[in-house]
Amino acid sequence: MPNPKHRFSQTRTAKRRTHHKVEGVQLSTCSHCGATVLSHRVCPECGYYRGKEAIKKEAEA
Fold it and tell me: Which pLDDT does position 60 carry in this prediction?
């Protein structure tokens, strides 16, 4: 396999790494109860996912 013959400059390396930043957590709202939920996860409050009951949650007294 070929290897690089010259060192990359710091500017060139920094330009490549501009996209290596940490992004915020993707949050959405539950369609059933309106709670804030991580995307593509079952709602921990009501147990619904995409409008269907995924987990049976017992009502707290």
Answer: 59
- CA separation, residue 34 to residues 2, 10, 15, 29, 48 (Å): 55, 47, 41, 5, 11
pTM of the model: 0.58
Q: Are 29 and 35 in contact (CB under 8 A)?
A: yes
- Residue 38's φ and ψ, nearest 5 degrees, are -65, 145
| Cβ atoms 50, 31 nearer than 8 A | yes
For 1-61, give the DSSP string.
----SSPPPHHHHHHHGGG-PPPPP-EEE-TTT--EEETTS--TTT-EETTEE-S--PPP-
Structure confidence by residue, pLDDT tens digits, 15-36: 999 988 888 899 999 999 999 9
